[in-house]
Amino acid sequence: MKALMSVVALIGVLGSLMLIGMIFGVVPSNTVRLVEGYMPMQVLSELAIFVAGFTGLSYLANSMGIAFPRFWQGVLFWAFIQAYLKFRIYPPIPFSVRAMYGTVSFVAVFMWVSANEEDWKKFRQPILNVLDANTGFHKALRTMYLILLPILIGGFSFMTMKPNVDEPIELRTVHPAPPASTKVHGKTYTLQTSQNPYRVNLEGKFDQAYSNKLIVEQGMGRLMAPNANPWDDKAEGYLKYVREGGEIFFQNCHFCHGDNLNGRGLHAFAFNPIPANFTDPGTIAQLQETFIFWRVAKGGIGLPNEGFPWASVMPPWEQHLTTDEIWKVILFEYWHTGYYPRTWD
Amino acid sequence: MSKLRMNVKATPIIGAALGALILSATAAGLGHAEDLPEGFAKGELAPAPPAEMIEAGKRVYFTKCVWCHGVDGAGDGPGADRLWPRPRNFNQGTFKIRHTASGELPLFNYNEKNPDSGKNDLLDTVTHGLPGSAMPPWEGILTEEQRIQVLSFVTTQLVKDRKFTDKQSETQTILQLGTLKPAEATEESIKKGAQLIVDKKCIECHGVEGRGDGNAFNLKDDWGFSIQPADWHKCWNFRGSRQDPYNVRNIFRTFSTGVNGTPMPSFADSTSVEDRWSIANFVNSLCERDAEGKPLGIDPLTDKPKINFVVPSAPVEGEISNDPENEMWKKQGRRYVAMGGQITHKPRNFVNRIDDIWVKSLYNEKNVVYLIQWDDRTKSVAEGKLPWAPIQVNVENFGVKEQAPKTGEEGSIAAAQNNYAVYNDGIAFQFPIKWQEIPAPFKPRYLWGDAKFNADILKWEADGSLRSFKGTGWDQDFEERDDFEEKTKLLKSEWKNGQWTVMISRPLKGDKDDYDEYTRFDIGKYIPMVFFAWDGHNGDAGRKMAVSAFYYTILQPPIPQEVYIYPAVIAVGVVFLEGWMLTRRANKKKGKVL
Predict the structure, then answer these.
(1) What is the pTM (predicted TM-score) of this model?
(2) Residue B11: which pLDDT band, with cuts at 50, 70 and 90?
């Protein structure tokens, strides 16, 4: 038990040191990759590791007879959560959202320290000590609090009341509801029934099972499947169309969506909303090919209002590409990311 | 006796010390003896990577790299012709960012797995990318193993004219960057660097202020493509910045080794290590910094300065100065506005040479003034009259074309660069007309408004004109607003050493409260704003331009009195609360009941 706890405690110490190092810029912030965007599993598992680490630390301290007061455990843990949310996640979460998390974690910490009568007594004892000021140290502490509290609260209300010029927060729907059908280059496509004409097997028949076998493999790098090189001279059918789609992608789309389809192209830094990251499991992996077809053909200007059509720089690709080219690009995007398009059934 | 013993002991010590001195001197490149430039040492060629590594690398290459670098690694993939700088042509073995002497192959060793060790240049490049070009950082996308595999493939199969393992023809003279300590960036060192860049003729290409505006027109790389000298004010765009743009070592390295394939030579032979640090310190000191002189925050997702989408305008009493050096302007903070190519509608601009502008704003009771500064290597004023009227936006009808997707190298962007007809440099911004009536977050479309919500556009061109338009759509010709133009004022427009400074004043509102035509500025409200920029030497005209995202401008209200009063009241309240609590507690302890 002790050995296990020591290991766990070590993790806690290392993790805390790393976080503190990152906050003060001693440890480069990319030592362990920052949590980027919406990654609840990474956040939860990292927090779980920290909690385990703290448990180990507290256990060890207890067994060594230098128990850490419950009051400071509670306060420090709450402060840790705040620091984690502020410094570990990128792009930064707005203060209003962090304040919500802060309240929730405050309630959680409060429930923890007041779980039973004994714990609660332990928790509030340091507060009472300061209030009653029985010793010289506590007296000094009390005087300090008496002076600091009004100053801090007054200062905080001044900061909040001072007119600020922070960025206003606007929430945008990333995947708005598609229309039933869309008209591109004079032809109407029903989104429920249309199919990518290039997702075909060697006989030229629509065959998603066939194409699914030839996409790149999941995992780091997402490399092409062995013996499924679209650049092979002998590549035919699906793979040949993938290459043609890739050529169009790298002549038109990578400027924003990036060489790795992760939304980090040359011009991406300048735009807001930022270009979609196709490697994120929340984008094309969740959508039907026909949805992509509609979005590509109609572009930002064709979005419904909840998608902020006025701000998106996504071109209506029907102005630049033929219908066939659009389908091929979509084929390429699924190939390159290694995702299957969603089907209607 | 004791003396003798001491001598006996001392001799080997002195000998050892002398030996160490000589050894270290040779290692640190006192190798003047061997004719090595200062700070360099001879190195061994790395072993050839094993065959299975090369084979594995081929799979990586044909998934990720082939799209730009091409099947034969000649830098002619499908994406190449619309890129500038063009993707690297590997065939000649010419690589820009190295620790090796000018002309030598870069360091690549499949056994050296640490990209930041200074012992594996190519791994460093693939890991951190080449900022300012389309080459992204592959860290976190490809594993370290995969990055080394693909480099094994590239260095053995695609570098065709040279061989990384050929002892007959290749040497490695390596900059010992790890052992050289940077000279501190003292005022003296920076001053010395400022003099040295004149003596060493750096300014001939990089310009007097280092904005890359000297001789910007005649430079070509080894393949005959137009290239441009680096703009020292944008260190985050340095190809060799290794995602650490304010690190002076990167500049020292580039200056010591030169940039192969370009006119940038190595200065190692002619410049002492100390002088090189002075130059590096000076160049580093030019990179844009915040008001306190600290490096700008760099966004790790984009490797560009972090963006704040609000352009605040501060109140001033009386006349607003037209001198950017005036105290009122110096006091006001500036904002970085990122500019991307307009790639939504034809003619698209795949290569915008203006990638950021800096904006400041002040207002008084009548006008709001925007001070916009941006780097542009060339002052461009169209010769003669432009074929289109100022209100016409569909300039593709007059021959302003976007780059064809596949043109062959002769017709590529890189080849056409600097061969365009010269149009006017320009800057413009738009606000929604009647934004008060548009429910947030609705806005007129970023590209010159739409039929429902019109945009109020103010456009300056390098011919000295400042025009005011109404925009009703991306493909709709502007509507003129002559009566408003008289009220706007160009306070300043100057091109100096690669930088434009333009100051534009416009009224806060029209004559009456009727604001059908013009944006009316209300204090303390967020008003959406979009910026547009044209580089006349880049063939920019009409929609072929650089464009920003939506920013907000806000006239900062003077701080109202309540802001000072209420917090004081609250603080006093807290004091009373404390008193009450302590008395209560004390009474309770004494057993008194209140």
Answers:
(1) 0.86
(2) very low
Instruction: Give how far A29 is from chain B: nearest CA, Å.
Output: 9
Q: Cβ–Cβ of B355/A310 closer than 8 Å?
A: no
ipTM: 0.89
Question: CA B292: distance to chain centroid?
Answer: 20
Q: Judge whether B194 and B186 are in contact, CB under 8 Å.
A: no
Residue in this structure with the two tokens 């007054």, named with its chain if needed: A154
Could you say which of A91, A154, A229 has the minimum Cβ distance to residue B570?
Answer: A154
Number of Cβ atoms within 10 Å of the Cβ of A344: 8
Strand-pairing partners, residue A191, are none
- Per residue in B26-37, pLDDT (tens digit) is 444 444 446 889
Rounded to the nearest 5°, which phi and psi values hold at B86?
-70, 155
| Span A232-290, pLDDT tens digits | 999 999 999 999 999 999 999 999 999 999 999 999 999 999 999 999 888 999 999 99
**Vertex B318: Cα angle to B316 and B322 (nearest 5):** 80
* Chain A neighbors of B355, CB-CB under 8 A: 270
- The Cβ of residue B592 has, within 10 Å, a number of other Cβ atoms equal to 9
Nearest by CB: B136 against A165, A248, A258: A258
For chains A and B, count residue pairs whose Cβ atoms are closer than 8 Å.
Answer: 203
**What residues of chain A lie within 8 A of the CB of B60, using their CB?**
221, 223
Q: Which residue of B has its CA nearest to A33?
A: B140
Of A246, A303, A312, the closest CA to residue A276 belongs to A312
Angle between helices A117-132 and A136-161 (to 10 degrees): 90
